[in-house]
Amino acid sequence: MHGEMQTIDQLCVNTLRIMAADMAQRANSGHPGFPMGAAPMGYVLWQRHLLIDPSAPTWPDRDRFILSPGHGSPLQYSLMHIAGFEDVPIEALKAFRQWGSKTPGHPEFGLTAGVEATTGPLGQGAANAVGMAIAERMLAHRFNRPGHEIVDHHTYAIVSDGDMMEGVSAEAASLAGQLGLGKLICLYDANDVTLDGPTSLTFSVEDVGKRYEAYGWHVVFVADGNHDLEGLDRALSEARAETQRPSMIIVKTTIGYGSPNKQGSNASHGAPLGVEELALTKKNLGWDPSWHFHVPEAVRAHIGKGMQRGHEARVAWENRFRAYEKAYPELAEQWKLAWEGALPDDWDVDLPSFSPGEDQPTRNASGKALNAIASRVPWLVGGDADIGSSTQSQIKQGGSFDGVTGAGRNIHFGVREHAMTAIANGMAYHGAVRPLVSTFFTFVDYMRPSIRIAALAHLPILMVFSHDSLAVGEDGPTHQPVEQLASLRLMPNVIVLRPADPNETTEAWRWCMQYSDGPVALVTTRQKVPVIDRAKYAPACGLHRGAYILTDANAPADVVVIATGSEVSLALQAHEQLASEGIAVRVVSMPSWEIFQSQPSSYIEQVLPSDIPRVAVEAGVSFGWERWVKHRRALVTVDQYGSSAPGHVAMEKYGFHVHRVVAAIRQVIAEKKS
Amino acid sequence: MHGEMQTIDQLCVNTLRIMAADMAQRANSGHPGFPMGAAPMGYVLWQRHLLIDPSAPTWPDRDRFILSPGHGSPLQYSLMHIAGFEDVPIEALKAFRQWGSKTPGHPEFGLTAGVEATTGPLGQGAANAVGMAIAERMLAHRFNRPGHEIVDHHTYAIVSDGDMMEGVSAEAASLAGQLGLGKLICLYDANDVTLDGPTSLTFSVEDVGKRYEAYGWHVVFVADGNHDLEGLDRALSEARAETQRPSMIIVKTTIGYGSPNKQGSNASHGAPLGVEELALTKKNLGWDPSWHFHVPEAVRAHIGKGMQRGHEARVAWENRFRAYEKAYPELAEQWKLAWEGALPDDWDVDLPSFSPGEDQPTRNASGKALNAIASRVPWLVGGDADIGSSTQSQIKQGGSFDGVTGAGRNIHFGVREHAMTAIANGMAYHGAVRPLVSTFFTFVDYMRPSIRIAALAHLPILMVFSHDSLAVGEDGPTHQPVEQLASLRLMPNVIVLRPADPNETTEAWRWCMQYSDGPVALVTTRQKVPVIDRAKYAPACGLHRGAYILTDANAPADVVVIATGSEVSLALQAHEQLASEGIAVRVVSMPSWEIFQSQPSSYIEQVLPSDIPRVAVEAGVSFGWERWVKHRRALVTVDQYGSSAPGHVAMEKYGFHVHRVVAAIRQVIAEKKS
């Protein structure tokens, strides 16, 4: 069968297959097998169902598309190229996986207009899609009015065997079933091959369809995903017709389809086919082996028709939106604010301030600040991993999110920390909502793979972590964070805020709401902390510079004590105690290393003069603190896991008491003199 | 119904219920609800099925028991106390959650003899159980001989709603189904309540039984887990009769059963009942409210009978083992070595050494070292998350693990990194096997919650991570680790090894095999690195001190360059280049911070003299490096995520080239002079 004798459908599919093989060959790197097998589903979805407009890649009501197995990126890039996305000219396909190209090995959100999510680490894309579908429902509920449906789109994800094995996709799928996200449609490329070999090694007993039915999904099968384009089309139509349950379309395909000697085997998974096999593949698929990066004009025209459908949908939407603006001008204004993430003028007028004596856990202060903001910032939405009542992260008047109607601003994620984070990423990708997620600080470890993607993709997810130290107490070492502060601080593009008292907590919220370049972790205490007397000490707005002088001695300081969070009050106690002895102790509250590091060097020198010795106090590991404090003896930290005991006992036993702080101060002063 | 009128079964169950409530009340902290609901299943399992012997808590062929919802620890402690475990006298129950007690908030392996696993962070216990069941099969295959079944025990786990929501349990369950682990039996306490409220918020659509059937499990239901002790007994018998599939017994219970005003509600989940409600509960369950920490003698006697069954099983096993020792003295010797984790005399004779010119990725050298060891150390077993062929972590002659027969030394975990780690922990808890797990370094983030438990519980799991830096190249930032080295180094009790070349890789393996106090991460390159000429430079055995002088100048050093892994050869290039200019550069290879830090201070001073300025070179974040190098200008590191490009291009673009190292050296020398 030669190219010109193929049906237009076949021609389109084979163009995608061969383009993927050409790209990997040119790059001498990549994964041709997946796109060659998944080309039919990609083609049918894009040409017949997906409503997107390459000339307006961020049109708000477009359908969303995620390729969860990001290693299959040639499929997405080829579709984008043929569809006419400006960021993906043929040169970009030829520069696949090269420095500076817009076609990196795995799709990257923000780099290539039209790529909706950064994928690659498996499982997360499937969970991102759940987040997009949630955002769609939330916005539909908030903005749609009878006769004015300005939010009404689907989320489509292609997922792979590897995605189906990852726990994060399982967590997300269970929640999607719980919520009844009817406009979420996944196409599962079941090719039975992974990097190391056939899935019979790892994944052949499980009945994935039955599992998704158990989650409450609508499951459809396509037995021959290599050829049965009408079957794919029917399955997608059925999925769209199902509005009360998410749909999983299980499609049996052959990895590397078309490669005579490598199809159906892991030989086609993780490496180019090789020049000879590529030529044989081209012949086999009716291609001239001398054609490289070839897109027949008929293919462009045909896929273009699918895009025209999307274009028309966008134009129709814009007309609908104009009518909406007239009918509901205030809502239309809110719509714009939501998409910009813009704060209303009065957003912070209800923010609480706390007077000395109103001692309380910073988690409580955080809950009050959150609720003061949430009542005026409707695009802020909450969620937690089953412990919102404990982390104080629930929006009190918000109600529980309902996946069918879209009502409710608190998402009950269940005990599913990783999916919670990946879903929040999906909501952030979608836009017009800002997601808050919450759990105990020690469980941040479960979330880490998705925090990394949020940091990479500059997603402004808000993470509220309570129970932030050994002071958690009786729950013991599994629940007492010690290394988590450092573990987040060292991630590029993650901001960590650990406020010292209720007023710094308010300021932390104020800061968070004005920042949108990446994930932020707000870390709060379980235990009561004193409200620092701001008449006596510096105001809490110092938080906005990351670190600030909370109090100084009358004389030039003999020593600077840097502290964070609940340990700031220990530093103040030491300051008071030593003042009576004539030792001048400056206390610096340092709620955020990252913000402080971004200040001008003059400010940094002002707060931490180079020639004054320093002591640091934090109920966490010392790792990293040498950035601020030269001598390990000057670190009042804890380099081991904790123990089950009442919180104040645990803190005391591990050395977080004023005597140790005073001793460390005396030590550095003695060394300075000697 | 008063105490003395209850059947002995009822009396036992109510003793456990009330003890849990008493413990939480005394501690003024804890989770009484779970143990009150799960007491019947705990009782029936321990009294009628579980084969353990409190007088020999570590008898090798005992059944294993895991309480995955560790917050339900009062149930386990109460059972252990009544059963007669020495570590849990009544005083220990009264000291629940107190400093220094053996009854911490969540069970801790190693602290309390008889506790088989550290649990608390949900989901992991369920996966640990899979690991224990795998270890049982492996040992059965290796050691059992016809008529000599010295390995034949069950693994029982109690799991909760929260465990069922966590992705790690889903990954592990899928693998357990794949492997057909017939001797794994889980009891799922389906009480429909979590910390925040009813599971209708988060977990009511999913049909858990159907999901486990989809995984290939044998599923049994007990509709009334509060009262139907015979039903629980029958279900356990059915589960034990099923030998080809793991069993999930789904038990409907009432959280806080017996508490008149709090049962069935989250009010009983996370806090003591309160004095009044506790008194009402006691009355309701036929107890005298004035009884505190009361165990009726009949209860001790009856549960003691169950323990007697276990004791007799142990005595029978010891007789069997004596016969085995006679029939198979060599195997019996191997058995002992395996339980001790002892190395045979000749264990390292095949370890490879590499000559200059045999340049290769350290992942390849690692694979060779592993295989050289594995052929002589039969208790070392391998496994990987679908990329063993790429990480070079497969035992070549080992075969694929078969969960029914127990044959095979390579576990194909599938794309399930978290479960892989939690399962490895389970294998390590079990004993007599040492598990190796492997994936790309960037995916260590998926594993982190279980690495933390391995560190806490001192489990000697071996983690082999390849693809260790930006040099991964084309796969792009999602696959290029930058912060992972630091993120592991900062975890207490985790050892990180990043060898510089093939010979250091051999030494790293030698070191790992002689260490057993916690998890070790061996981090290797994807790309080729030169074999360092050890005739010219110091021998690779320097690795055993964590850091060592690889080469010195003839003159006293002007500067010390510290490097790790693939960047050591950059440091050597800088050394050579500057030597020709008369600048004396000492190069220190520092494969392991943790090992180096444990050396005497005299050695540390010898390697890194205080008065010589230092430069550090590592293709990772700077965070933490200030421990060794004072000035940020002297850090040749990378504080951002990478980019998709060929590996050598990515390294070059982010500054890992000899010119930058030389420039940093010149800078610190200039500053020293000025």
Quick gist of this model?
With 674 residues, the first copy, chain A, is an alpha/beta fold. Chain A is 41% helix and 12% strand. The relative contact order of chain A is 0.09.
Give the assembly state of these chains: homodimer
User: In angstroms, what is the radius of gyration of chain A?
Assistant: 28 Å
CATH level-two architecture of the largest domain in chain A = 3-Layer(aba) Sandwich
- N-C termini distance of chain A: 89 Å
Can you tell me about this structure?
- Two copies of one chain form a homodimer.
- Chain A is an alpha/beta fold.
- Chain A has three domains: 2-311, Thiamin diphosphate (ThDP)-binding fold, Pyr/PP domains (Rossmann fold), CATH 3.40.50; 360-529, Thiamin diphosphate (ThDP)-binding fold, Pyr/PP domains (Rossmann fold); 542-673, 3-Layer(aba) Sandwich (Rossmann fold), CATH 3.40.50.
- In chain A, 41% of the residues lie in helices and 12% in strands.
- Chain A has 23 helices and 20 strands.
- In chain A, the strands form five sheets. Chain A has a six-stranded parallel beta sheet with strand order 10-9-11-12-14-13, with helices on both faces. A five-stranded parallel beta sheet of chain A has the order 1-2-3-7-6, with helices on both faces. A five-stranded mixed beta sheet of chain A has the order 16-18-17-19-20, covered by helices on one side.
- In chain A, strand 4 and strand 5 (197-198) form a beta hairpin.
- In chain A, helix 1 (8-27) packs across helix 11 (297-327) and helix 2 crosses helix 11 (297-327).
- Chain A is elongated.
- At the A-B interface, helix 6, helix 7, helix 8, helix 14 and helix 15 of A face helix 6, helix 7, helix 8, helix 14 and helix 15 of B.
